[in-house]
Design brief:
Blueprint (H helix, E strand, L loop, with lengths): L1 E5 L3 H14 L5 E5 L2 H11 L3 E5 L22 E6 L3 H9 L4 E3 L4 H14 L5 H13 L5 E6 L2 E6 L3 E7 L2 E6 L4 E4 L3 H7 L6 E5 L2 E4 L3 E5 L5 E4 L4 E3 L5 H10 L3
Parallel strand pairs: 1-2, 1-3, 3-4, 4-5
Antiparallel strand pairs: 6-7, 8-9, 8-12, 9-10, 11-12, 13-14, 14-15
Length: 251
């Protein structure tokens, strides 16, 4: 397996190179480039499987890679290396793009590489990059990236009815009655969507979109009926809070 490091800082390249050597035995060759254009040439020539890409570089940002490589050439995974703010990190997560925070640490490397190896050739990285660029250009995020068995799907927040825990997976139901099973626990999405006010967690197994509440039924301890007629439990300690919320939004 081949890897390419694109970063204008020599020290950053050297550190990442050493960490990959020491922690990722599956990577047999490591190439380096000091700017995006040199990196693009190496991508076309050496066809690496994983590209570690800095965002903030002189002349060309790492996000501009889409301008120099056609989508048919995206047969590699990108892991961004960044010192970006919490706001930007949220954009990475919603776009389902892996990143390493600078200064990079050994504990981050192996997990990021293993995830990249599992998705090579099927993650539609060019689509994820477009979504990331749009997210970073706006303070309002509207979509979330969801990996599934056949590839990758971006779903608008307003199309999600509810998210349901299924062990270490999460089942996501959308307005067209499709269900997407994602290999991440519900708590991942609870954290990711905590500032998206339409989502509410009435029970440890559910995260619902308040826009799609159809009914609240008092009997049997109380439960919610969503627009798709799916019933959702409410924890005892959440009942008063939930009723206050729905009264304020006019449900």
């Amino acid at each position: 397996m081949k890897a390419l490091i694109i970063d204008d800082e020599r020290k950053a390249r050297n550190l990442l190179h050493v960490l990959l050597d020491e922690n990722c035995p599956n990577i047999k060759k490591i190439y380096e480039a000091e700017d995006l254009l040199a990196g693009v040439e190496l991508i076309k020539k050496e066809q690496p499987h994983i590209v570690f890409l800095d965002i903030e570089m002189p002349q060309h940002s790492g996000l501009e890679i889409l301008d120099f490589i056609g989508k048919e050439q995206f047969n590699f995974e990108i892991i961004f290396t960044t010192a970006y703010s919490e706001y930007a990190i949220k954009a990475f997560e919603l776009s389902a793009i892996d990143y390493l925070l600078k200064p990079v640490r050994a504990t981050q490397i192996l997990n990021a590489v293993e995830k990249a190896m599992a998705h090579i050739g099927k993650s539609q990285i060019n689509i994820k990059l477009e979504e990331l660029k749009q997210s970073l250009a706006s303070s309002n995020f509207h979509k979330i990236g969801l990996p599934f068995s056949d590839g990758f799907k971006f779903v608008n927040f307003n199309e999600i009815i509810l998210l349901e825990a299924d062990g270490m997976y999460t089942k996501i139901t959308t307005i067209n009655n499709s269900e997407i099973l994602v290999s991440k626990p519900l708590k991942h999405f609870v954290s990711l969507l905590e500032k998206v006010t339409v989502f509410y967690k009435p029970h440890r197994s559910y995260l619902i979109n308040l826009k799609f509440i159809k009914e609240y039924i008092k009997k049997d301890g109380g439960y919610i009926v969503m627009d798709n007629n799916q019933t959702v439990s409410i924890s005892k300690d959440k009942k008063e809070e939930f009723l206050a919320i729905v009264q304020n939004i006019g449900c």
